[in-house]
């Protein structure tokens, strides 16, 4: 339905019913369904339906075209689906090892997953929900910096889209003006010594629907790309994300994480700040001092430098 409406100025109920092979009342139900998902559909008496604002739907062929050949060769498959429970969960159910590398984009997620067991707000046709399945010959033990690598790739793709001033909050939150722009979720399956399968998930707020401030949608201050970059294309941004991600992964496999430390330091949103880290072993307070080659957060606590690998950071006022 959204595809039909976004492809032309307006469509009559009859045209839509014919194209979808359903009744006029089923068309009306689908219109209601779109409205419930935050898509504003205008019904014009006797003329049919149109979208209140233009929608750019994700388009596999366009995304593939925008990815440079050097990175495209690493993608065994790229799939765009209308809905997934969670693109990460969907790739985890598949045997990635046999289809390395596989990319999955969804127009919406019904059970999008965030870090620390939270859910990820995933409205229809607004944002980017992307997962990449990648098989590593090394084991889980070598991949502790992977979540940070993902954030670096996403940050570079955002710069290519024309955004500036965003930073990364360890381990992989993307922030702009102190508000959340996107996040990453890495899920690993395999042995400590290898090989292992990684599902690398990125969610970016591109064009949030009006009314997202509703208390139950997102529980923290957020911002979207469209509020700072005019005419942002989700297809270009998705291609850019995939290209930078593949480029970074190939480099990481060849050279390790050390070559990314300088780039991290340039966009480290915590360095020099007083922080509070709620770690599984207890809460610590100190000053953030960059990261280690293993991707750990370095924190100066009462004159001692500690390397932390898990937990949730908040900036202290
Ligand atoms: C966070 O909490 O900051 C991480 C959010 C990660 C969201 C992305 S959207 C695509 C992929 N599929 C999911 O279910 N989660 C990740």
SS field, number of helical segments: 9
Number-wise, the strands total: 14
Mean pLDDT over all positions: 93
Percent range for β-strand residues: 25-35%
Rg from Cα: 21 Å
Topology order in helix (H) and strand (E) letters: HHHEEHHEHEEHEEEEHHEEEEE
Unreliable spans are none
Shape: globular
Largest sheet: 7 strands, mixed
Q: Give helix % range.
A: 25-40%
Structural class by sheet pairing and helices: alpha+beta
Query: Can you list the ligands bound to this structure?
Result: biotin
Oligomer: single chain
- Largest sheet strand order: 3-4-5-9-8-7-6
Distance between the termini: 48 Å
Task: Briefly say what this structure is.
This protein is α+β, with helices and mostly antiparallel strands and 317 residues long. It is built from nine helices and 14 strands. It has helices spanning 2-6, 13-20, 24-36, 60-66, 69-72, 87-93, 146-160, 234-255, 261-266; strands spanning 41-44, 48-51, 77-84, 102-109, 128-136, 167-169, 173-176, 179-190, 196-204, 274-279, 282-291, 297-301, 304-308, 312-315.
Can you tell me about this structure?
The chain is built from nine helices and 14 strands. The protein is of the alpha+beta class and 317 residues long. The strands form three sheets. A seven-stranded mixed β-sheet has the order 3-4-5-9-8-7-6, with helices on both faces. Strands 13-12-11-10-14 form a five-stranded antiparallel β-sheet. Helix 2 (13-20) crosses helix 3 (24-36) and helix 4 (60-66) crosses helix 8. The model has no long low-confidence stretch (mean pLDDT 93). Bound molecules: biotin. Biotin is lined by residues 86-88, 109, 112-115, 118, 120, 129-131, 173, 183-185, 201-203.
């Amino acid at each position: 339905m959204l595809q039909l409406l976004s492809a032309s100025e307006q469509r009559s109920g009859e045209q839509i019913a014919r194209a979808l092979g359903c009744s006029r009342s089923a068309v009306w139900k689908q219109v209601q369904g779109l409205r419930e998902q935050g898509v504003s559909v205008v019904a014009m008496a006797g003329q049919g339906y149109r979208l209140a604002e233009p929608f750019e739907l994700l388009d596999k062929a366009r995304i593939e075209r925008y990815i440079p050949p050097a990175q495209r060769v690493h993608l065994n498959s790229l799939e765009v689906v209308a809905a997934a429970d969670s693109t990460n969960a969907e790739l985890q159910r598949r045997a990635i090892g046999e289809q390395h590398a596989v990319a999955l984009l969804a127009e919406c997620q019904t059970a999008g997953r965030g870090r620390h067991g939270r859910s990820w707000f995933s409205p229809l046709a607004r944002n980017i929900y992307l997962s990449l399945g990648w098989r590593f010959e090394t084991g889980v033990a070598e991949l502790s910096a992977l979540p940070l690598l993902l954030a670096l790739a996403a940050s570079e793709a955002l710069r290519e889209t024309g955004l500036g001033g965003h930073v990364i909050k360890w381990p992989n939150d993307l922030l702009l003006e102190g508000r959340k722009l996107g996040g990453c979720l890495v899920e690993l399956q395999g042995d400590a010594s290898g090989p292992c399968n990684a599902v690398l998930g990125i969610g970016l707020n591109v064009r949030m629907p009006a009314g997202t401030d509703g208390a139950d949608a997102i529980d923290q201050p957020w911002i979207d790309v469209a509020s700072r970059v005019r005419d942002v294309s989700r297809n270009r941004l998705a291609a850019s994300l995939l290209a930078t991600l593949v480029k970074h992964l190939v480099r990481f496999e060849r050279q390790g994480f050390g070559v990314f430390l300088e780039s991290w330091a340039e966009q480290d949103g915590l360095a020099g700040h007083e922080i509070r880290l709620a770690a599984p072993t207890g809460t610590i307070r100190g000053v953030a001092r960059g990261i280690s080659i293993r991707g750990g957060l370095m924190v100066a606590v009462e004159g001692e430098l500690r390397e932390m690998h898990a937990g949730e950071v908040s900036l202290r006022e």
